[in-house]
Task: structure prediction
Amino acid sequence: MTKLVIILLSAVFVNNYVLSRFLGICPFLGVSKKLDSATGMSIAVIFVMLMSTAVTYPIQKYLLEPNDLGYLQTIVFILVIAALVQLVEIVLKKYAPSLHKSLGVYLPLITTNCAVLGVTILNIDEGYTFIEAMVNALGSGLGFFLAMVMFSGVRSAIEGNDVPENFRGLPITLIAAAITSLSFLGFGGVVENLFS
Amino acid sequence: MNTLHNFSKGIIKENPVLVLVLGTCPTLATSTSVINALGMGAAATLVLICSNIVISALRKVIPDKVRIPCYIVLIAGLVTSVQMLVKAYTPALNDALGIYLPLIVVNCIILGRAEMFASKNKVIDSAADGFGMGIGFTLALFLMASIREVFGNGTFCGIEIPVLNDNHVSILTMAPGGFFVFGLLIACVNKFGKHKPKSNNSGCESCPQAELCSKKGGSTLVKGANTDD
Result:
């Protein structure tokens, strides 16, 4: 149980996918301008991360590994994620139109979000059990959510300021991201020591 | 002449990282040391050339509606081959790049070039474009990694630099330094770029999913990046 809590907390804070592993930077910079789109995107990411871990983990353990097909990992995972995202979109459209309205638009963008493929591959590389892999996926998604929501706040604070001409737009956003990331650096080592 | 232009535009004028702002994830993640950056650049260039050739050769066969999944499968196959080559011949590089090597699949530069260039042009031009873009990507990575390694670690390609070695700013090799150096580099490009990159030249436009993204006002960041409002 302690191990699960450690995995969860370190996925959210210490090894935050966006701010310390640099995965999913495109949506982080692209969709974080408004709080509601940042929240929508992050919830969709949490959902897809959990679903794709639940599907790819058994495929790797029971289909690819027993048949010595481990080298097909990348191809199979990206296909599964792409198909899953499509499927989720169709199901949501049919059975939960209101949810589809708020999340559906973000779903197609997630296929090429490297954080999702990253979490499925890392779960295998780290040698997690199924439960640990699911917890890690949840933690990574929550970490993404946290980073997006925090950063959209930071960006709305930058909005009204007078920024030097050459720094307008992307450069100042990246520098703000550096400072946000700096705050997450402070979590290093905290989680392990909490439970020792 | 035209082929040469297709090759050379990717290096400076349409540099995929610094001007088009594509492929930010591997740029930030693997530029901690010069060796890693060059390895990442070489692997991505190889995939980029091969994928441009294959997609250009198949451009009349692939149905328009399912082109993105087709491209992704083709690119994933190529990435797997490159991954096996790296594992076999340079295992140290494989350990250093780790997760970022399979993640070349979702690198927007490769999908972006497939969609923007290879699906509309002849094989030779596409190969030249892929090679140029790959070199541009590698150069940008090399530049960023040099700054981060020299000032952050006091070394260059593992060789110690006398004065800096004792006074290094180790935060530059960590995550915040990556964002910071990248931000400064793009500001320099804005300042010294011969022509100010126009809004239609920016990252989101070259992303295959720009249309979807802009529906939600997502790409406002890059659109507003170089205007004077």
The two ends of chain A are 14 Å apart (CA to CA).
